[in-house]
């Protein structure tokens, strides 16, 4: 049997390198690479994209749009890691666990968009509650999240690396900084579309002085509802929704061992895995709850998810290489 051919356009970037390292040990696929001197050569990229079974795009949005414009072979499948097509017509959203039937859609699609890192955490928390009617679709949702600096790609990694090398106290690189303060972050559209919320969530991201890892927090002021659900009801809804899923895991409810020293939910515990964990914290007396997702922004938030989608698109077992 001939092995499917895979080309990673943008193989030298942060996401591309991580996908490459997950695929290059495998003997069930053939990785096709571009000469490094030609990696931005449009003619060569066009040739390779149309000569493989799946092209994985790990490029800035404009580069991804350009790569898609190169496609002339109707048999080539495209898996795009950028933001360019996540809410576009004709594309399937590559979050296999998000809805029943999503895997089948990914398996038969020509064009699949890999979800954003923050949306992966957010949707794992909120989608079950909207889908099951535990929260109304017009609930005013806010999100606070923190990402490791690799989320900012090569440029931000280089900034932090330079800072770490110098280790000067006067260098003013942020140990923790919130951003996106003009609102309308590029992930908000996909967050709204795939959650089923009536309005965009108010999203405040942050970056911290650690390379990989992410926490996405969704506070729920349940006292605003006429009949607030209990913490148990919220937990059961999310746990049942993802029952049997390998890569979306719901942590035990009211179990202090999920916290380090019984106190802290740390950010790096699932680094280098393809797992997103969901936590539910609740107080039924004060009618407050907090949903938290923990993931590796480069794992289930990008490259791990891409490999999972690739496996589904090729008809392979979904966990291969993960
Ligand atoms: N980092 C992350 O956590 C995540 C990233 N993503 C998405 O993945 C995509 C890639 O991001 P990331 O890997 O972080 O970015 P990087 O900046 O680390 O890498 C992008 C790579 O693409 C190359 N490139 C740029 N333009 C072209 C072009 N026209 N033709 C060929 N190669 C090109 C760049 O080359 P050069 O360095 O020379 O410019 C670089 O090697 C982005 O769309 C990003 O939004 C998605 C989820 C998470
Ligand atoms: C820390 C940081 O800068 N994170 C990036 C998100 C990571 C990323 O590239 O997002 P995609 O998943 O959409 O590609 C940002 O906020 O723009």
Encode the helix/strand succession as letters.
EHEHEHEEHEHEHEHEEHEEEH
- This entry's quaternary arrangement is single chain
Unreliable stretches (pLDDT < 50, length at least 5) are none
Largest sheet: 7 strands, mixed
Structural class: alpha/beta
If you average the pLDDT, what whole number results? Answer: 96
Work out the strand percent: 15-25%
The bound ligands are:
NADPH dihydro-nicotinamide-adenine-dinucleotide phosphate, N-acetyl-L-glutamyl 5-phosphate
Structural overview:
The protein has helices at 14-23, 42-49, 61-69, 102-108, 117-131, 153-166, 188-195, 231-241, 299-314, and strands spanning 5-9, 30-32, 54-57, 77-80, 92-93, 111-113, 142-148, 176-178, 202-208, 214-221, 248-250, 276-283, 288-295. The chain has a seven-stranded mixed beta sheet. A six-stranded parallel beta sheet has the order 2-1-3-4-6-5, with helices on both faces. The longest helix is centred in the last third of the chain and has 16 residues, at 299-314. It has 322 residues and is α/β, with parallel strands linked by helices. It folds into two domains: 5-115 and 302-314, NAD(P)-binding Rossmann-like Domain (Rossmann fold), CATH 3.40.50; 118-297, Dihydrodipicolinate Reductase, domain 2 (2-Layer Sandwich). The two termini are 23 Å apart. Helix 4 (102-108) packs across helix 9 and helix 5 crosses helix 8 (231-241). The protein is built from nine helices and 13 strands. NADPH dihydro-nicotinamide-adenine-dinucleotide phosphate binds at residues 9-10, 12-16, 39-40, 58-61, 63, 66, 81-83, 116-117, 150-151, 153-154, 297-298, 301-302. N-acetyl-L-glutamyl 5-phosphate is lined by residues 82-83, 116-117, 147, 151-152, 156, 186-187, 205, 207. This is N-acetyl-gamma-glutamyl-phosphate reductase.
């Amino acid at each position: 049997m001939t092995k499917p051919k895979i080309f990673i356009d943008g193989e030298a970037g942060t996401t591309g390198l991580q996908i490459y390292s997950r695929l290059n040990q495998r003997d069930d696929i053939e990785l096709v690479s571009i000469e490094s001197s030609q990696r931005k050569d449009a003619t060569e990229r066009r040739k390779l994209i149309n000569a493989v079974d799946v092209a994985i795009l790990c490029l800035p949005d404009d580069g991804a749009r350009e790569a898609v414009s190169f496609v002339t072979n109707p048999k080539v499948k495209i898996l795009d890691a950028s933001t360019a097509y996540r809410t576009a017509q004709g594309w399937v959203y590559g979050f296999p666990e998000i809805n029943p039937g999503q895997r089948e859609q990914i398996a038969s699609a020509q064009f699949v968009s890999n979800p954003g890192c923050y949306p992966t955490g957010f949707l794992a928390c909120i989608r079950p509650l909207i889908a099951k009617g535990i929260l109304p679709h017009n609930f005013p949702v806010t999100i606070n999240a923190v990402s490791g600096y690799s989320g900012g790609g090569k440029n931000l990694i280089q900034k932090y690396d330079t800072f770490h090398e110098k280790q000067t106290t006067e260098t003013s690189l942020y140990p923790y900084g919130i951003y996106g303060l003009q609102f309308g972050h590029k992930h908000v559209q996909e967050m709204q579309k795939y959650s089923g919320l009536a309005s965009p969530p108010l999203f405040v991201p942050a970056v911290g002085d650690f390379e990989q890892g992410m926490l996405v927090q969704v506070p729920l002021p349940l006292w605003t509802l006429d009949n607030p659900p209990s913490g148990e009801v919220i937990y059961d809804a999310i746990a049942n929704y993802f029952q049997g899923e390998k890569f979306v895991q719901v942590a035990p409810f009211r179990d202090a061992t999920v916290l380090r020293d019984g106190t802290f939910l740390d950010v790096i515990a699932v680094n280098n895995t393809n797992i997103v964990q969901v936590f539910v914290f609740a107080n039924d007396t004060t009618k407050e709850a907090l949903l938290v997702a923990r993931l590796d922004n480069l794992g289930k938030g990008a490259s791990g998810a891409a490999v999972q989608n690739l496996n589904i698109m090729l008809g392979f077992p979904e966990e291969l290489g993960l």
